[in-house]
Amino acid sequence: MKDQKIALITGANRGIGYETAKQLGEQGVTVILTARSLDVANESAGKLKQLGIDAHGAKLEVTSADDRKALAKYIDDKFGRLDILVNNAGVAPKRSLFEKITAETDEEEFEYIFQTNFFSVVYVTNALLPLLKKSGAGRIVNLSSILGSLTLHAQADSPIKDIKVLSYNASKAALNMFTNHLAIELEGTGIKVNSAHPGWVKTELGGTEVAPMEIVDGAKTSVELSLIGEDGPNGRFIHLGEELPW
């Protein structure tokens, strides 16, 4: 266990989160899969155990301070440290992601999106940071989106020019800012922090009918950033090895 890396993936009971846990587990990493329900988390971990992966389920409603505190204690008691944190859990707008919604965005929509996609990522990371500092080379991967790129949104010929849902896009832009600032703050600790754009993937959020990428490919960026060495990127926005503009 001492030499085996320990990874926590939030929202790992399905989709990209589950596939990320699977791919990390296949590379010998002990994976902790979280879900809002412990039964669901354990069921997902059980599927990976059947594949020979050292997998564990844990309850985490990312918006719950009590859950975050309990999770940190569980990891500390069972493993004593954390090597990899993949902040995968996120929510989509209650309406379509593929339209233009700015001025009419209401308070409920902003709070719903930002609580999970931004505030909770900061709070989960803060709760687990002491455990990551016990690792020789901690890695934090924040699941962002190309839709959080201010540079691309400002370009007239941008591939995302027609996708302007303020609540979701702004939450990912804020998440990118967190990545940038935390990476700078943790310089010299051995911890690397990066944002990952998984791509347009066939998930409930991305749409199973029109999205061009399969889930197995959508997890690759998170896995690569979880396992980077000392010479790997830090404080960057990455998709399949290529850097994206903030």
TrEMBL record:
Question: What are the record keywords, sorted?
Answer: NADP, Oxidoreductase
Quote the InterPro entries the UniProt record gives: CBR1-like (IPR045313), NAD(P)-bd_dom_sf (IPR036291), SDR_fam (IPR002347)
Name the CDD domains for this protein.
carb_red_PTCR-like_SDR_c
Q: Extract one GO molecular function annotation from the record.
A: oxidoreductase activity, acting on the CH-OH group of donors, NAD or NADP as acceptor
Q: Which residues form the signal peptide?
A: none
User: Which Pfam families does the UniProt record give?
Assistant: adh_short
- Family label: Belongs to the short-chain dehydrogenases/reductases (SDR) family.
Please give the name of this protein: SDR family oxidoreductase
| Organism name | Mucilaginibacter terrigena
